[in-house]
Amino acid sequence: MHGESVMRAGIGLALLLGLLLSGCGTLSSGPSELPQRSDLFQLSNEAQLAYESGEDAKAEQLYMALLRKTPNDPEIWFRLGNLYARAHRPDAAADAYQRVLSINNTEHRAWYNLGIVRLRQGWAAMIQAYGHSPAGDVVHGESGRMIGHLERMPGLPPVNRNDSAPKK
């Protein structure tokens, strides 16, 4: 009996040692598998320069290339969100900011920018509701009241309520 338990312990130890040794090979990755820091730095600089010079299509391509190499970098997602917000692509901007928050839910800049994007979307929806509802309708009155509140917020232009729904 004692010899049998010693043999089982020896087999178990051999299996454990084999697993540990095979795991070491998967934990280390050679330098060729990781993006080079200088390449990422250069790509990031090019993306930022394109963004700052108003070359939004180029900046987007460069940011997307960066994300293919480092998909969980919250700063790149944040910059992409800013690019989309500036390009009047609120859904894409919100998605990018939410990606930042899925990586780091304490990123205050992403929370703030997401709030601004959502406020602008709500404001645009209220304008549409007001413009498409007949005078005297409850929705017309309530959406008009909400527009009045939102107009007092900085960053949202005033609305001429005599106009029909704004054109895109």
Topology:
Elements: H1 2-27, H2 37-52, H3 56-69, H4 74-86, H5 90-103, H6 108-132, H7 138-151
Structure description:
Residues 5-34 and 163-168 have low confidence and may be disordered. The termini are far apart. Helices cover 73% and strands 0% of the residues. The chain is an all-alpha fold and 168 residues long.
Features:
7 helices, disordered C terminus, mainly alpha, single chain
Q: How much β-strand is present in the residues?
A: under 5%
The tally of helices reads 7
Query: How much helix, percentage-wise, in residues?
Result: over 70%
Overall morphology: elongated
Instruction: Note poorly predicted spans.
Output: 5-34, 163-168
How would you concisely characterize the structure shown here?
The chain has 168 residues and is mainly α. It is built from 7 helices and no strands.
